[in-house]
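[Automated response] Your request has been received and processed.

Submitted sequence:
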Amino acid sequence: GMVGTGFLARPVLPGPAAGPSLQLWSFPMSSDANPSAAARLPLFYRRPVPLSSVDHADWKLKVADYAFAAETAFVPLVLAEIASASRTYPVVFAGESAAPLVLTGLEKTNLFVTEGVWDADAYVPAYVRRYPFGFLATEERFILALDVEAEGVVSSGEEGRPLFEEGKPSELTTQALAFCDTFQGEAAATTAFAEALKASGLLIDRRADVTLPDGRKLGVDGFQIVDAEKFAALDDATVLDWHRKGWLALVHFHLMSLDRFTTLLSRQAARAAAPSSDAAETPAADRPAARSKKA
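Generated structure:
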């Protein structure tokens, strides 16, 4: 199998986390020979590989910005961050798994990232903060992985924080493992909440039709929201159960967050009004030069 030396592994715990919606939280092991694997990779990840004290002994991570998230209009959320995220973004549910997401833009643009900097007043989702680390899933365990094509990941040189020191995980890697652990635990709770929303029949397909500052009409669709009337009509036993689990409050946060569509619109308007500077183009122009160090 894939069990090699120097990997940082965690056992796979039985439970709802083993379901299909795990795709967002961890990725299946795949061989480079499989070209279709790239199509199945989660948001942001280009080439996640198991982090190994043998293969990556001298690798370092330089401070990188959020340019990698500048063109995404949505980001997955875990349960514990729905309340924080709802202050800034619309929180909606997507796909067969009804996974919670924040909408960060109306088109293929993150309206909260400017020249690689995430807006200081806006909550940064854990999914974004975890990158370029993640978990690869085998049948019996999760292995800490690193996207070796991420900006700031270097295989040699003096610059950056080491991933390993004298063959042992560095502080950076230990923190990444702890963060991914917590994230993985939250994924199970998130799946349970999403399953309950689906089973209760509360979710309805919704489309947001917006008119952009330049007069273009835009339909944002493919997401679901909780139907407020059906939610108000939940039976007493479910209400009590969900209250005990903390889920009632989460639905309220979700419903309130739908007002944040106006935030997206005003940000879109502000961007359209701003004089287009070459500065916005720099990250893309820089990229090939910055990446050539690994060639």
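Summary generated for your ticket: The radius of gyration is 21 Å. DSSP finds nine helices and 17 strands in the chain.
If you did not submit this request, please reply to this message.
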